[in-house]
Write a structure and sequence with these properties.
Pfam families: Cyclase
Structural class: alpha/beta
Number of helices: 6
CATH class: Alpha Beta
Strand order of the largest sheet: 4-10-9-7-5-11-12
Shape: globular
Organism: Halarchaeum salinum
GO molecular function, one term: arylformamidase activity
Protein name: Cyclase family protein
GO biological process, one term: L-tryptophan catabolic process to kynurenine
Order of helices and strands: EEHEEEEHEHEHEHEHEE
Number of strands: 12
CATH topology: Glucose Oxidase, domain 1
């Protein structure tokens, strides 16, 4: 018999009308199509991009012939790992190897590595959340891949920074998002993006080990999918 975890911490952003999405994406469309009081049953229809809310990327996201999510076993999305406390971080700060090296002894081969920047406090339709979030330098992504990470989670919209142009906001970084993603994806290290509540896992510590689950739907041929991410302690 398995031991029940003492605590299950939800690391997942909600999916509902008017949630913040990547600025170049259309908003989600969530509508009730049937109502039990009228139709005998209730049903909804939801339309959104696969990289919406808390989600995981597959190699196909940046590699034309890369693996899709369905090519990984379910065990790829569950595992032991560690949260590293990088907070507080500056606006649009680049996470470098220098940020990660102090935690070298805390990362074990095969770990899910979660990076707490504290940026989930800005979640919403804010400049900080949409455009000015911390992000990984390519060398930092390679460092985590070389350290044996199987997945890397962030409490920001992406492991890569805001590199595009919008009418009201220009690029926030000179680090190309491909440079942030490719060292991970080329090594089958899966980015988990838009996490929250990593501070609850840390519970005041600089690092904290836990078991993590971030299972996507078994959708075929996709470059990503929303997940329900949780930590078990």
């Amino acid at each position: 018999m398995f031991d029940e975890p003492e605590e299950v911490i939800d690391l997942t952003n909600p999916i509902e009308d008017d949630i913040p999405v990547w600025p170049t994406f259309p908003p989600i469309d969530l509508k009730r199509t049937k109502l039990a009081a009228r139709d005998g049953y209730t049903m909804e229809k939801m339309t959104m991009r696969t990289h919406t809310a808390t989600h995981v990327d597959s190699p196909r996201h940046f590699i034309p012939e890369g693996k899709t999510l369905d090519e990984f076993p379910a065990s790829k999305f569950v595992g032991e790992g560690v949260v590293l406390d990088l907070a507080p971080m500056e606006t649009a700060e680049t996470i470098t190897v220098d940020h990660l090296e102090p935690f070298a002894d805390d990362i074990e081969d095969g770990d899910v590595v979660m990076l707490h920047t504290g940026w989930d406090q800005y979640y919403g339709h804010t400049d900080e959340w949409l455009f000015e979030f911390p992000h990984l330098h390519g060398a930092a992504s390679q460092y985590l891949a070389d350290a044996g990470a199987t997945a890397v989670g962030v409490d920001t919209p992406s492991v890569g920074g805001w590199f595009d142009e919008m009418p009201a906001h220009g690029s926030s970084t000179d680090v190309d998002p491909a440079d942030s993603h490719l060292p991970l994806l080329e090594n089958d290290v899966l980015p988990i993006e838009e996490l929250r509540n990593l501070d609850a896992v840390l519970d005041g510590a600089d690092t904290r080990r836990a078991c993590f689950s971030f299972l996507p739907l078994n959708v075929q041929n996709t470059s990503g999918c929303s997940v329900r991410a949780v930590a078990y302690r």
